[in-house]
Amino acid sequence: MPEAPPQLICLIMRIPFLSPRRPVVSVIRLQGAIGASARSGGIGLSDTALAPLLNRAFKRRRPAAVAIALNSPGGAPVQTSLIAARIRRLAERHGVPVHMFVEDVAASGGYWLATAADKIWVDQSSVIGSVGVISSSFGFADFIARHGIERRIHTAGTAKSWLDPFRAESPEDVARLHRLLEPIHAAFKDQVQSRRGALLPGDRDLFTGEVWVGQQAVDLGLADGIGHLEPVMRELFGKDVQFLTYGLRTPFLRRFGISAGDVIDAAAERAAFARLTPGG
């Protein structure tokens, strides 16, 4: 069969529906604490906020892969579980591999999200892990007693005012709290083991809440390699890969100012990042 003349080949290349299809990679950025700003109508990482974005990223233009740039210190465990489960459902339904690229932090719920990917990539300085559950508060019992303040509270139900910060902590309340934390921790461990189990060392407890940096996480099987989003995707799918970026939309009223709720959420989120990321 004779070859087509060069002029015809050039013409075909210029016709969109006859041109060779460039591979597409959908790019999503997940930034911030999970569940943050949900109460104030913000744009925190919640399943409700992310569902439309994730659906588009997995369906539109039949992507060769979904690449997620992740930077999160964790947050609400239920929202974490819902988002991770949604990512896995979409990946399996559409047959699209997921690559997670950790930036500064993927700790606690942030690492739970990372395990939803088929491959986890980190920077040399990324903080990874914190597979644990935490509950923190303050106690003011001695302070109010010292200032002659009397706490008055009445409940129907003996456990209704448990862990009241204005009363002395009781062993019964602490035991009740641990009964809540342990099942969440067990679910977290199950998630990591189901997604990363074959890669984890059998002689090391990785579920203590400890964190690791970059290559340490790779060596322990918590991540797959050191790499950044664009060069890794080009290496895997070719230099002509096309990136389609998807992001959360800022609510209309948020474009004109910041509410008090946003300030509180931002302060809490900053504190969570600060606890996990050493300054340069």
TrEMBL record:
A Pfam family of this chain: Peptidase_S49
Residues annotated as domain Peptidase S49: 93-235
GO MF term list: serine-type peptidase activity
Keyword Iron-sulfur: no
SUPFAM superfamilies: ClpP/crotonase (SSF52096)
InterPro entries in alphabetical order: ClpP/crotonase-like_dom_sf, Peptidase_S49, S49_SppA_C
Family listed: Belongs to the peptidase S49 family.
PANTHER family on file: PEPTIDASE S49, PROTEINASE
Record's protein name: Serine protease SohB
Species: Paracoccus alkenifer
